[in-house]
Amino acid sequence: MRAMEFSEKDRQQISEHGLTVEKIKEQIQNFTNGFEPLPVESAAGVGNGILVFNADQAREYAALYDNEAQRLSIVKFVPASGAATRMFKDLFSFVNEGKENDVARKTVESIRDFAFYPALPDGTDKQDAKGIARAVLDYGATLPKGLIYFHSYPDGPRTAFEEHFAEGAMYARSGNVVRLHFTISEEHRNGFEKLAREAAAKFGEMYGVTYEISFSVQDSGTDTIAVTPENEPFRNEDGTLLFRPAGHGALIGNLDRIDADIIFIKNIDNVAPDRLKGDTVTYKKLIAGVLLELRNKRDELAAAIAADSIDLGEAAGIIERDFFVRLPKNFEDSGTDDKKTFLSRVLDRPIRVCGMVRNEGEPGGGPFWVSNPNGSTSLQIAEPSQVAPEKAHLLKEGTHFNPVDIVCYVRDTAGNKYDLTQFVDPSTGFISEKSKDGKKLKAQELPGLWNGAMADWTTVFVEVPVSTFSPVKEVTDLLRPQHR
C-alpha cells in the first residue's frame, strides 16, 4: 500500500475493533519485515529433552494423578473459536474456480460416510459433484469447527464440542464435577450454549457427573489485519478490511483468567470416538502425574534453596536434570547470592508438561532447545516458520512434533496463581498462510499459546503415542480410520 492510506470507513472499522491506525501500520510492517527467528540450538529428542515411560511407569503416574485429583481444582481448556474455513478451502476452490482436487473428489465419492451426512438436504448424494460440494459448504463453511458433526454413533452424530464432554468426564474430573472452558467466537455463542445444555444433561447422566461449563471470547483488541500475498490489506467482497483473531497466542489472557490448580489444554478438533479414547485418557493422566511430581520437586527444592539447606551445586544439577534448564556458562563464576537468586527465579514459574508424538509427516511445531536472554537454554515448542533458514536442517533432525497435548500447573509454592501474561516472549509472533472464501491471505499471529506465550514456563516433554493425535485439518480427515 503505497501511502498506506485508510478511508474514514476503514478508520471507523479499525476503531470498533479496539485498534488504532498506528497499530495496523505496525502489523503491516511486520508482514513486510517478518519476525526475528527463534534462537533454536538443537532439536529435542528421546534422551535429550523428551522423556519416555513404559507401561508400568505410565500406570504409576496415572495413579499419582488419580489419587490427588480429588483434592485439586481441575479445568479442561479448549480453544474452540476457530472457524472451519480451512477444512473446506479445497471445496471452495472446486466450486468457485472449478479447480479439481483430491479433497473435493474424496468428499463427493464418500459423501454418505461423513457423520454430518444426515444434516445435508435429502437427495444430496444424487446431485452432481459441484452440487454435493455446495451442500457441504452450505452446511459447514460458516460454522466453527466445534459445531460440525465429527463422529457417528447409534444414537446419532456427535460434534467435536460434544466429544470434549465425554473425554473430560474420563480424566478432567474432581470428584463428580467436570469443569470445561471453551474459547469461542461471540457470533456462535448461542449455538455453543444451546448445545452445552444438551450435552451436559446427556453426558452427565451417561458418566454420573455434573458439568460446570464456561465460555470466553477472544478480545477483539488482539485481532490482526489480514493481508494479501503482496502485503496489501485483504478486503472482503463488500470492501471492508478483514481482521482475524491473532491465533491461539491471543488466548493467554483467557487462560490467565482460569482459576484452577491443573489445566488441561487440547484443541477442539483433536478428538477421537469413544472406542479409541483409551490411549488419550491413559496418557493424559500420565502427563498430569509427571506434572504433579515436578510440582512437588519444585516446592521442595525452592524451600531448600531459601533455607540454605542444600548445596547450590547440587540444586543446579537437579534443575538441569529434572527441570530441563541448562544453566549459563558463567553460572559457576557467580557469587553465592547471585546463584541463589538465579536458581530461585528458574523455579518460580508456571509449569507445563507437553505430550509429544513421533513425527510421521504431520505438519506442526516441534520440541527444541532454545537459548534464553539470561544465558540459559531450555525447552520450547517452535513452529517451522520461527526457525531461521540457516537452521532449517534442525527441523529435519527433529523426531517428534507438538500435538497440543498440554497440562499446566499455574500456582507458585505458596499456592498463589501466577499472572501468566508476565511469562510471554512478545518477540515471537509469526506469519501464517490462510484463506478466505477460497482466496489466499497472510495472517499474523501473536506469540503462540504453546509457543512464545509460554516461553518462560518450566517445560517438560513426554512422548505419547500417535493414537492420541487425530486432528481434523481437511474435511476428508474425517474419513480417516481414527474418526470412523
Characterization of this structure:
This protein is an alpha/beta fold. The protein has helices spanning 8-16, 21-33, 55-69, 89-97, 102-109, 129-140, 160-171, 189-207, 252-256, 278-306, 312-322, 336-347, 393-397, and strands spanning 40-43, 45-46, 49-51, 74-79, 149-151, 158-159, 173-174, 177-184, 210-217, 224-225, 243-244, 262-266, 325-326, 351-358, 366-371, 377-382, 400-409, 430-436, 439-445, 458-463. The longest helix has 29 residues, at 278-306.
Average pLDDT figure: 93
Q: In percent terms, what proportion of residues is strand? A: 15-25%
Regions with little confidence, pLDDT below 50 for 5+ residues: none
Helix tally equals: 13
Helix content: 25-40%
The strand count comes to: 20
Radius of gyration: 23 Å
Question: Biggest β-sheet: count, sense, barrel?
Answer: 10 strands, mixed
SSE class: alpha/beta
Give the end-to-end Cα distance, rounded to a whole number of Å.
Answer: 48 Å
What general form does the structure show?
globular
Please outline the helices and strands.
Blueprint: H1 8-16, H2 21-33, E1 40-43, E2 45-46, E3 49-51, H3 55-69, E4 74-79, H4 89-97, H5 102-109, H6 129-140, E5 149-151, E6 158-159, H7 160-171, E7 173-174, E8 177-184, H8 189-207, E9 210-217, E10 224-225, E11 243-244, H9 252-256, E12 262-266, H10 278-306, H11 312-322, E13 325-326, H12 336-347, E14 351-358, E15 366-371, E16 377-382, H13 393-397, E17 400-409, E18 430-436, E19 439-445, E20 458-463
Parallel strand pairs: 2-3, 3-20, 4-8, 4-12, 8-9, 14-20
Antiparallel strand pairs: 1-15, 5-6, 7-8, 10-11, 12-17, 13-16, 14-17, 15-16, 18-19
Helix pairs in contact: 3-10, 4-6, 5-6, 7-8, 10-12, 11-12
